[in-house]
Amino acid sequence: MMKQHTATQRVTSNVPQQHPISMYLKVWLLLFVLSACSYMVDYFQFQGTLRWTLILAFMFLKAGLIIMVFMHLAWERMAVKLLLFLPPIAIFIFIVLMSSEADYVFISRMVSFFNP
Amino acid sequence: MPNNQQQEQSQASGSSPWQSVKNDWGADKQAFDMPWGKLMMWIFLLSDTFIFSIFLISYMNVRMSVTVPWPNPSEVFALTIAGHHIPLVLIAIMTFILITSSGTMAMAVNYAYQGNKKKAVYLMVTTALLGASFIGMQAFEWTKLIVEEGIRPWENPMGANQFGAAFFMITGFHGLHVSAGVIYLGMIAKRISQGKYDNKGYQIVEITGLYWHFVDLVWVFIFAFFYLW
């Protein structure tokens, strides 16, 4: 009796919640609109800060929708989210380090190669 | 069960530090409440995230440090269709195709868990076909760039030499992932239709889906950083 109870519990915890198909269609449509928006950024040739803000905003919205809804991360436990979101902090630090390094290389090249 | 017996014996006679490590990792403990295949796919995707990040970071590094102008992607990837010069049009179509394939994949997972095997298989095959058309367009794009525009990994006529290296490396590695995904989807769809998962449950569809959505996710970043920058 006890054994049966734990067995059924196990089965139910392994089968994820069901979502209506309409949810996927809505997210799909939203991704279409966001992709069209990011394409428009290039089409209308926005430049400077506005361009970067728009590109990054649309990019993170799309990525968030794909990870959270399509990959079902929104319905996973906290431990899984930590597993996936903590390590990329190292990537972020690496980006900061490498962009400052690239600036340094650029300035060095300008000073060394373009100054008589 | 010789392993369990050994474990019990050594536990009884005072265990070594290594035995304790083995007990901790081999014991009946579970941190992540999901099928092991799904957890392994997540960890693989995490490691893949690092690989693609390193490619994109190296691209950022060369692009920020070159002293000659970087070729304008908006112009390089423009196509003339029926007399109209449209910037980035092929890339936009590829983006929409990949997003559509992600949508069909998400629905395949849903139908698989509902027990609707036939619909799940059809949707997985649709996903694979969309992926294959993505690869076809990428092959067209590569051919155009190599043959018509004369872009090579070491030089190109439009500007910074590093453009070709970054482009072929990043899109090539992503294309390889899409190709592998098409084969993976095809195999799993075939195995499902053969009824090999009837007793095991259909978690495999979700695991395959995770991989496919990840490929779409990487494209979101490539599209933003390589084509729109």
Blueprint of the fold:
The complex is a heterodimer of chains A (116) and B (229).
Chain A lengths: L1 H13 L6 H23 L4 H23 L7 H8 L2 H26 L3
Helix pairs in contact in A: 2-3
Chain B lengths: L1 H11 L4 H10 L9 H30 L7 H4 L2 E3 L2 E3 L2 H26 L2 H32 L13 H32 L9 H26 L1
Antiparallel strand pairs in B: 1-2
Structure report:
The complex is a heterodimer of chains A (116) and B (229). With 116 residues, chain A is mostly helical. Chain A has five helices and no strands. Chain A has helices at 2-14, 21-43, 48-70, 78-85, 88-113. The longest helix of chain A is centred in the C-terminal third of the chain and has 26 residues, at 88-113. Mean pLDDT of chain A is 84; it is low at 1-13. In chain B, helix 3 packs parallel to helix 8 (203-228) and helix 7 packs antiparallel against helix 8 (203-228). Chain B starts with a helix and ends with a helix. Chain B is flat, with a radius of gyration of 23 Å. Chain B has a single domain (41-228), classed as Four Helix Bundle (Hemerythrin (Met), subunit A) (Up-down Bundle), CATH 1.20.120. The chains are: A mainly alpha (116), B mainly alpha (229). The interface between A and B is large, with 55 and 54 residues.
